Amino acid sequence: MTVSLKVRMPAFLATPHSHMRREFIYPHRSVRSFRVTVAKLLSAVFTAAVLCGSIAAYNAEFFTWHDRLCVTLLEWTGVPVTGEQTIELFEGLSTAVVPAVPVARFESNPLRFVLLAVAGLLALWAIQHRIALSRGFVLFLAALLLITACVVAIHPSSQFGAVEFGQIWLRGEVLVWLLLPVFSAAMFTLVQPIWLIGVTLTVLVQVFGIFWSAVRMAFCLAVMHYSGILFVPILWFALGVLADMIYLMVFYSMAVHWNASRYWRRKAL
Amino acid sequence: MTILILVAKGCLLFAIAVLALYGLRHYTLALYRLSIRRPRDMMEITGYFLPRTSVLVPMHNEEKVAADLLQALVEGDYDRDRIEILAIDDRSEDRTGEIISDFAARYPVIKAIHRRDGEGGKAAALELATRQASGEVLLLFDADYFPGRAMVKQLTAPFCDPEVGAVMGRVVPHNSGSTLLAALLGLERAAGYQVGQQARYNLGLTPQFGGTVGGVRASALRAVGGWNTKSLTEDTDLTFRLIAKGWKVAYVNRAECYEEVPEAWEVRKRQIARWATGHTDCLHRLWSSVSGSKFLSRPEKVDALFVLGCYLTAPILVLGWLASLVLFFSPEASAVPPLLLALAFAGYQVFGNQATFFELGAAALLDGDARRVLLIPVNLFNFFASTAAICGALLRYYVGRVWGSRGPRWHKTKRFRENSNGEQFRNGNGSGRGLFSQRPSGAYTYTFSTESEQ
Amino acid sequence: MIPWRFLIFAGVLALILYLHFYLAHRQWRRLKGRPSLEIDVTYVRMEDCLPQSFRLKVKEWLQLPALTVTGTERTILKGHERIRATGPMAIGDRHESDAIWVVDGDFSCGSGCEFFREIYTRGSARIGHGSRLQSLAADGNAVLEDGVTAARWLDSTGEMILGTDCRVGARVTSRTAVRLGMGCRVLSVFAPRVSTPGSNGSPSSQDLPPPDDLVEIPPPDESSTAEQALLDAGVDPKKVVRMSADSWHYAGDLTPSRPLRVGAKLIVKGRCHLPPRSAVRHDLKSDRSLHIGRGGFCEGNLVAGGDIYLAPDCRFAAVVHAFGSLLISEGTRGAGKEAPVVAYAGDGIWVENNVVVCGKLASPGGVMVVDAAGAEDWRKRRKIQTSRLLRV
Fold first, then answer.
1. Total-model pTM
2. Quick check: A265 contacting C, CB < 8 Å?
3. Which residue in A9, A218, A246 is closest to C20 by CB distance?
4. Is the pLDDT at B185 greater than 50, yes or no?
5. Residue C213 contacts by C-beta under 8 Å, 6 or more apart in sequence?
């Protein structure tokens, strides 16, 4: 394990002082830095390459696991899965299978549709009223909900089914899975003082990303089953790539928390 | 419909391009700052260059905080023969003028300036004080700041370099334990100063002079035409006028000074709206002089334009979101797009936005601030709220430009601290337990267990 | 029919979402009302702050009850630290100690000793050659024999003498004077008089005022005579541009053939190599390398974006700041009229024989005392042609 906290001991004091009470003057925070070693750089590149390569090489298997988890959750929830359909994602990647579920349509029950939209808007209004800091975000979602309701009411043909949604969802997620190793390797492996924790977190983030995507997609499909596409744009916005960004930040904040604590402890040497 | 989709695609590509560049810049600065071998700093020459200095303190209705700042300044360790403190009562309607006069009567080093009429705003007050200042260097403090004893020496040290036209110190909120918003702003400040400013300084780019906890060389200020009283952000305006004329801005990371950040969202909204408007106005006025300056290198010019245009990223981001939603509903959503383009899109969506959060973590890592860093995910809400406030402010600004209005007026930021007459800071009980060291006067030493000297 | 299972699923999803923010929420509850990043607002810069702080701590520790008392020696326990308070002390060779020593009188040790904790002596101190110590605070003179290594600071109220090849990981300070031996390497050194071997300690032994007939830059007036003088000295007057009332800017390399007098603040956007006997009356900045020829007389600050080379017998009286490295050649004197001077370099300071500086030398890359061969090596690495800079 390589611990490479940048210690400002002058290079000319290369002789070991293993017994010295303090070997250096602890640097003030204004002049601290962390060393990015070649070993760390290589391990970050290696980890990212292995994870990216795994996703690219075994994407069919990953799609299958993703689909199975999604179907299992939908079935448990009581949403009928009428079948599975093969979809194309990107040139160069294999096809994927997504569950097909019946989706409520505006034309079948316009009143229910209007009531759901009003209820959604009221809920969002209540949230922004209660939490001032969330106002910008929630008002954006409310505007999105209103626009969706209008678009669907004026152009019912704009509604789409679960398979189309699954395709849009998986396209976003597979890109995240491909990019995630690169960025998490930079954030965890490269700049964190403890190499092993960095690599572990990089792998953990990847595993969590795939699992969490399946759960979110199952939820969105279930919502589509009950309320059509009314809430889908806001769910896609809030639970799509934004949710990916959130868990990445959570892992990142945890990593920095551990490392900053460790850095502080060095001070007490 | 086809036109709408085409426009949406164009907007999305534009947003991706702009925000990806900003994202890349944030990542580069953060990684660079983390790995700087020797951050540039002036601590070793602090106290060896003591130019005649005037400290300008503009105050408008600052009775809650005026005494703390003036007391802190008179307790500084700068040579009394080389310093003057110009406390400006800028048309105050509360007890500010009285407090200033009282301090001026007690301490000859303080000169009271009572301004009763004239143009409003901080820049106008500074312009008046600058005419009366005799210092070779002018240092500036807003009234809610609390400089340490060595602050003036730390800020004047970089002026030993004759090319330095302005200096900026580091701002640290003292009230980040008061509300969640204040805590999040504390994280933002750390990233902006510890990472952004220091990295830019080390890279030979321009750290921004923030108009407080900083200073300007009097002759340089006069050479570029003084303060711009029409600007809402006279500090940004001055920074870019200085660098366009060949002056440099230095950053002193060690010159840490307490400030008060907004604790309520409404106050923050007004503050960021003012910054966004003033900054963007500077972009419109100064981009040509900056990009055409013979004194600036190409990286300096590019970075300066990045800084000047930073608030435009908020409306561009929203534009990108709206465009992607239009495309979400369009029939083309089911077509198979090229992987590379899609990767660029996803990269911008997830990681372009995440880049600023990466900076927050980098700053916490360097500061050793393990406690607050866990709040990073919540900062997302602050990010959205700021985006909305900036979009609103810029909308009003551009509507004002089209309709020829004078634009938004300067608003004083609300203070949350109570009047303490200097006691709360010295006794360490104003902002929570253990905030300040309680040491007997005259024994200015580090504690043995937490030595840290550079 | 109410879709309970769907509602449970929605609840679980909401819970997972909340868990994303759980740590932040928990942390915020802990942080609320607590202080932010701490700044020591009482901090003032003192060059000997750590030794002074140590002395204060020692005073407190000596008030604690002794664990054992043997003759004049007391042992005090303070946490994990063992403090040995004794009278005057002379220790033999190869002694090892992990106690903090507080000596009421003179202290000396033989060669090859190792002290893993600080030493405080109320008299003078003498550390035998090849010894290693943590830190030393002496209330009298301090002598470190050849090859002594100190992991951190050294401080004395009297004279501090470092033998050859001593290494100090932090600052060396003295209230009187510091004499650095050949081959010494320290992080920084501060004293009213810092000298290297070969100097007689005088800060102004070889003062020669600069000649009066120097070519002035910026030109004192706009006359053609002043411009012609600059042209004759190899300086293009068109490149001299006024930046402000007291500052000028030179666009390009400034490598005159005749000595100059810098009469106002001057910023050179290129290399600045001044010939011997030049006079710098105001601040001078070069954004690349700055060389001051033999016998240069500098009253203003010298700043360079790259290296600074002070040729032999230069005088400086203010701040010398190199973002690269700095070579102070033999015979150079640094002394201010009213205040101490400072020489700082980001990448290391090389100091030759017979140099006296009244103030501070500091560099994160270390301050090294080198002989003529070391200085020549520094110049060779930077491809400095000395002929123009040394010939008077």
1. 0.90
2. no
3. A246
4. yes
5. none
